[in-house]
Design brief:
With 525 residues, the chain is α/β, with parallel strands linked by helices. The chain has 19 helices and 12 strands. Helix 4 (125-161) packs across helix 8.
Length: 525
């Protein structure tokens, strides 16, 4: 993937401001893109866009192909007549600085369903034609998704009434529909026909609004970096509709699950609980599902970051009944064969970023480099655990960066740079100051400056760092359930002074997206 020297901002759409309790694809999204243009940014990085489930994590979606209905902007549905002004007249007093997902779901989903019913009953011919085209083009994933969600609603309601916790398709649904028996599939399709169509319309809304926003971003010179989790959620249509692709028992429950061994984030490792792929079964189809997944994502974004890239070389396999991830083992995966198949189907120049963090071996590095995928450099990782001084060989230190990489001050899994620094020891702070050759009077600015100055061709800064916010603005704390994914900013925070601060760094360190390739020697090595 050719990489012109650029910089960008990491921000998930749920963090946009607005009156409806959660960021969405309305005016605030367009204002953010205008801010990026003013700040001379060339990249906007987001998290996965799928419908969220347990824990509200975008990395635990009900589908690898669907969009999150909670991101649909209601004002746009008002404009096309699917909602009436009275529907939005009495807004709840949502908190403005965070997402209260339970409250948002309770209030917003009924409005979305009402809009969908109005569209089904009264949508004009032009919109109905577009809707039918959408159904045809996306039937490969949409039919299963909408049925899955419709059936799930029924069984979730039943579980709630019976006070059953942890109910999923694999441990609670009736056996016939759990195992997709043809008669059961047909019966549920008939029983839930209205709900299924509503689910279809919500996906139509989402992709229509997202496609318009992406087009606006691209027209302004902004490329969008999307995100694919390597694994899928156990309670997802991906697993239900493709049981042969995973290691499951006869009931559809995982026999082994994904995680990572003890690392920077957790002394007991991270037990993610995702079902693991049966790579031999996938290889028999020439990895068709993965090809479809990458292709679908590249229809939504311009570049794809693949989370936990090292899992394509080898993955940490943990018994499904384990209490933590300590007693797992590394199992080989067919990474080279997979990406060769993807290249054959989608072209040689794959716009993929490899999230190469964690336990990285020479074989993982070789897999990344053999396909020319840029890796990630996290500045916070360069200065952790420095009680004994600086490790000059640390690959995250700026003097060890390589051009074919993306440098970050931190990611969605890190604390904000200010919050992170405030939790360093005095010895660690001294090491950081000595490396930078400056005081810590504005540590966040210093880190952003290091990122922009790096030889890494792309530099990405979380918006929280551009605002110089502390730990209160952290997006996610790995292994902590609850109180994640909720941070939101306010419209006034997108100030002209912040845009000019970023713009100054862009211009000073040669990351101007408007500069021609002839103005830089970056790609002439």
């Amino acid at each position: 993937m050719e990489m012109k020297r650029l910089s960008g901002v990491l921000l998930h759409p749920t963090s946009f401001p607005g009156a409806h309790g959660i960021g969405d694809l309305g005016d605030a999204a367009y204002q953010f893109i205008d801010f990026l243009v003013q700040a001379k940014q060339g990249l906007w990085q987001i998290l996965p866009l799928g419908p969220t489930g347990y824990g509200d994590s975008p990395y635990a979606s009900f589908s690898s192909f669907a969009g999150n209905p909670l991101l649909i902007n209601l004002d746009k549905l008002l404009e096309v007549g699917d909602l009436a002004p009275a529907d939005l007249a009495d807004l709840p007093p949502f908190p403005q600085d965070k997402v209260d997902y339970g409250w948002v779901i309770h209030w917003k989903l009924p409005l979305l369903e009402k809009a969908a019913r109005n569209f089904i009953a009264n949508g004009n011919k032009k919109r109905k034609t577009a809707y039918k085209k959408f159904l045809k083009e996306n039937s490969g994933w949409l039919d299963d998704f909408s049925l899955f969600m419709a059936v799930k609603e029924d069984f979730d309601q039943k579980a709630q009434e019976e006070e059953v916790s942890g109910a999923m398709w694999s441990n609670y649904w009736d056996e016939d529909i759990r195992l997709r028996k043809p008669a059961a599939m047909k019966r549920w399709q008939t029983k839930k026909a209205e709900t299924i169509e509503i689910k279809n319309v919500l996906q139509f809304y989402f992709f229509q609004q997202w496609d318009e926003l992406k087009q606006y971003a691209n027209d302004q010179g902004i490329q969008i970096i999307g995100d694919i989790p390597i694994f899928v959620a156990p309670d997802s249509v991906d697993v239900w509709a493709n049981r042969d692709m995973f290691f499951l028992n006869s009931k559809g429950q995982p026999t082994v699950v994904a995680g990572v061994p003890p690392d920077y984030f957790s002394a007991t490792g991270q037990l993610w609980g995702n079902p693991l792929y049966n790579w031999k079964a996938l290889q028999k189809t020439n990895f068709a599902w993965w090809v479809k997944r990458i292709k679908a994502m590249l229809n939504m974004v311009d570049i794809v970051r693949i989370d936990h890239f090292r899992g394509f070389e080898a993955y940490w396999e943990v018994p499904a009944d384990a209490e933590n991830a300590i007693d797992g083992k590394w199992v080989k995966a067919p990474g080279h064969k997979l990406f060769e198949a993807i290249k054959k189907a989608l072209g040689d120049d794959l716009p993929i970023i490899a999230e190469d963090l964690g336990v990285i071996t020479k074989k993982v590095t070789a897999l990344r480099d053999d396909f020319g995928f840029p890796g990630m450099k996290i500045l916070q990782f360069a200065f952790d655990s420095n009680e004994s001084g600086l490790n000059a060989d640390n690959p995250f230190l700026p003097h060890n960066h390589t051009p074919n990489s993306v440098v970050y001050t931190g990611t969605h899994d890190n604390d904000t740079t200010l919050g992170w620094y405030q939790h360093r020891t005095d010895v660690e702070k001294d090491v950081i100051r000595r490396y930078m050759g400056r005081s810590d009077s504005d540590i966040v600015w210093a880190f952003m400056r290091m990122a922009m100055a790096s030889v890494s061709r792309w530099a990405v800064v979380p918006l929280q760092d551009a605002f110089k916010l502390d730990s209160e603005a952290r997006m996610n704390t790995p292994s902590l359930l609850g109180d994640n994914w909720g941070w939101r900013y306010q419209s006034a925070d997108l100030s002209e002074s912040t845009a000019w601060m970023l713009r100054d760094l862009v211009e000073f360190f040669g990351r101007d997206p408007s500069a021609s390739d002839d103005d830089s020697d970056d790609d002439k090595e």
